[in-house]
Fold this protein.
Amino acid sequence: MALDLIFLNKYGLIGLLIISFISYSIIPFPSEVAIIASLIIFNPFQVFIVSLIGSTLGGITSYYIGHKGIKRIIKRKSKINKKAKRIFKKYGSLSILLFSSLPIIGDPLIVLAGSLEMPFWKFSAYSLINRIIYLSIMVIFGIGFESILGI
């Protein structure tokens, strides 16, 4: 947690972009503290846009890791693959829309979307909606948190 604050302090909005990218790629790294802390220094709109760009690029990276890499492993177990595809076809869009930004759950879910060949446009649309809502809540929470502390 302190590492992301040091990184943010040293690199500013570029640091926030990198933290957001890493957090939403395959590497679990909490970006929430950096998002809230960056509101002390930067305009909330800047924080929102930079976090959105970084998290979107990180999510796309995780999707392609699943699509190009993990998919090969899953294909070897075709019975599991067929069942997983059937379940993901039914609930995948909703799960990406609701859970793709959540810590611990979101990253594997995005990799699964790629590995089970969820159409990229569909993944992108639902993921973007999720990130807009999640990051809006984070920025609003951060602004409220700052005003409570009197920063």
Q: What stands out?
A: The chain has six helices and no strands. Residues 2-149 form one domain. The radius of gyration is 17 Å.
